[in-house]
Write a structure and sequence with these properties.
homodimer, DNA-binding, alpha+beta, two-stranded antiparallel sheet
Chain lengths: 241, 241
DNA sequence: GAGTGGTCTAGACCACTCG
DNA sequence: GAGTGGTCTAGACCACTCG
């Protein structure tokens, strides 16, 4: 792990512990550089990470201020659009219990559109997974997921009921490069009515998602359909310069 | 403008012009550093900008590849959640004509909740603006916007019918630090039915937004309500490491 | 004027991919 | 082994905010 990430971790901890109270100023780059025995540029990279996370705000000529991070303390701000580590990780600080019910788990050749999206040819088998995610037993999100089978050997029902992302990251050692997401409001379809237990006219919040690996290959195409009354997504956008 | 932004601009232009074709490799940092007569670190900062924009992908040991940017060529991917320069700027490359109809423009003291959000006290007058945005005359988005009046002197009907953001950036010289957004699906209210011309059971895609200035003060709280069949939002999330 | 963060350099070394 | 991008440094200078 690079030094700047380590330092970012230490500073983040100090902020959450109140060592640097909200509203106060972070020590200057020079002082932090001395403390951690690194160059000022390295400290700056660490602070940049915290800036993107919305924890601090730097102003040239003034200093770096600890922000109150009340946004993401809000109950409705638990789910962030600007990361994609799976539902389990979003909920790790939640008391509620996440479970998964596998509704469909098949493998098939993709049609042209799906093959294009996953950048495979039509002879590569693709997993199709439909999972209902429940929170404390209440229906929450219905996920339609497609993954190229050659990238995910050994996928099985047990994994689907736990966490796919844990499997990809820890067991297969895959590394994500990023994701593309598209958010819309939709009318419910028959799946939604049946599994999300929503009424015929309840709106659905859909997140369509393509996730990429470091090597450039798409690992997942999915549509995540959420009950409108149980879930919203949040997003922080920070200009860094 | 810093050198790395200038260089990013030149490289971006070359990519869109096809000087560096999709799928090919960008020249190495060393070569680009020589060409632009800067250090390799400066070239890296420029390439980082393009990475976040999804134009290139760097792999250690390999090189930097030009990606096809087909995502944001998609018609439905015009609106990005990861910037906040206003609707006018999202549509600048669109043939359709954006117009604005001012439905409400008043000023009043804020209630406690709004005062908290905008970080003003309840004695500071706050503008309340309701605007219907139309595309080629078709109702599109209904925006409920609140702004502290002391930050936006001289706001008037004429500006509201053109572009608020142009006024803030160019006339008032304000600088944005970032924004916080929260996305939900909602049932339509009476405003939506009346102005967006949507049916009683059509879903609404709502973007709730707080925009901050560089000095840390919130400049805007707004709710943007979109017809579900005319608009979705896109988002690119790239790990930079 | 003093002190802050922002930019930039030249050079060193490391981690990684590829043939 | 050759070549790539990633990290890090010490130091210089600039732009900005504040009192």
């Amino acid at each position: 792990m690079p030094k700047y990430e380590e330092i970012a971790g230490v500073l983040r901890q100090r902020i959450t512990d109140g060592v640097y109270p909200v509203g106060s100023m972070l020590p200057t780059r020079t002082i932090l550089a001395e403390e951690f025995q690194v160059s000022r540029v390295t400290v700056k990279k660490a602070i940049e990470i915290l800036t993107v996370e919305g924890l601090v705000l730097s102003r040239q000529g003034d200093g770096t201020k600890i922000l109150n991070s009340s946004f993401f303390d809000r109950e409705d701000a638990k789910f962030r659009l600007d990361n994609f580590n799976g539902l389990s990780s979003d909920l790790h600080s939640d008391d509620r219990k996440l479970s998964s019910q596998v509704i469909e788990f098949t493998v098939d050749f993709p049609d042209q559109e799906l093959a294009d999206r996953l950048q495979v040819d039509q002879t590569t088998p693709v997993y199709k997974i439909v999972r209902l995610r429940l929170l404390d037993g209440e229906p929450y999100t219905l996920e339609h997921t497609y993954m190229p089978s050659d990238l995910v050997p050994g996928l099985n029902q047990e994994i689907l009921e736990a966490s796919i992302y844990d499997f990809l990251l820890k067991k297969l050692g895959l590394k994500f490069a990023g994701s593309y997401r598209h958010i819309t409001a939709e009318r419910p379809d028959s799946y939604d009515v049946e599994y999300l237990d929503c009424k015929k006219n309840d709106p659905i919040l859909q997140i369509e998602q393509l996730v990429y690996l470091k090597n450039g290959r798409p690992i997942e195409y999915s549509r995540s359909r959420n009950r409108y009354d149980t879930r919203g997504y949040s997003l922080l956008d920070v200009k860094t310069n």
